[in-house]
């Protein structure tokens, strides 16, 4: 079973539907007993680094995620979920991440304009 972590910072149903379309056994949860049964964990996320970490703390998910990571359970971070796997992020203000990956998430410093592709050009 794959557990999608519900910490109120992501489009959980889109991730769940995508995995179900691949015929995967998937559940959305923040229950520690359910998370302990997972063969894999998905950590989606939309928003800011500090808010994501605040929500993980609020729902008491940091220790269980660290426990599962140390047990060798694969954890896939999607978007913001990937960013918070790192040691620290600087979005809004410096915030400690989960520390599963070495490094820091910093704002890109670019001089060029970033153009959004509209599918037409």
UniProtKB/TrEMBL annotation:
Gene Ontology terms for molecular function: lyase activity
Pathway of action: Amino-acid biosynthesis; L-histidine biosynthesis; L-histidine from 5-phospho-alpha-D-ribose 1-diphosphate: step 5/9
Gene giving rise to this polypeptide: hisH
EC category: lyase
Boundaries of every Glutamine amidotransferase domain copy: 3-97
Gene3D superfamilies tied to this protein: 3.40.50.880
Enzyme Commission code(s) on record: 4.3.2.10
Signal sequence extent: none
Alphabetically ordered keywords of this record: Amino-acid biosynthesis, Glutamine amidotransferase, Histidine biosynthesis, Hydrolase, Lyase
Biological classification of the source: Bacteria, Bacillati, Bacillota, Erysipelotrichia, Erysipelotrichales
Organism: Allocoprobacillus halotolerans
Subunit (UniProt): Heterodimer of HisH and HisF.
InterPro entries, per database record: Class_I_gatase-like (IPR029062), GATASE (IPR017926), Imidazole-glycPsynth_HisH (IPR010139)
PROSITE patterns: GATASE_COBBQ, GATASE_TYPE_1
Listed name of the protein: Imidazole glycerol phosphate synthase subunit HisH
Highest taxon, organism lineage: Bacteria
UniProt keyword annotation of Lyase present: yes
């Amino acid at each position: 079973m794959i557990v999608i972590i519900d910490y109120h910072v992501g489009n959980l149903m889109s991730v769940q539907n995508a995995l179900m379309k691949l015929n995967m056994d998937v559940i959305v949860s923040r229950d520690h007993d359910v998370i302990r049964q997972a063969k894999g964990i998905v950590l989606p996320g939309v928003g800011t680094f500090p808010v994501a970490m605040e929500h993980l703390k609020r729902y008491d998910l940091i220790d269980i995620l660290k426990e599962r990571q140390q047990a060798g359970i694969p954890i896939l971070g999607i978007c913001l979920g990937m960013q918070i796997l790192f040691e620290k992020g600087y979005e809004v203000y410096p915030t400690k991440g989960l520390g599963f990956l070495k490094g820091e998430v910093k704002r890109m410093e670019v001089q060029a304009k970033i153009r959004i592709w509209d599918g037409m050009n």
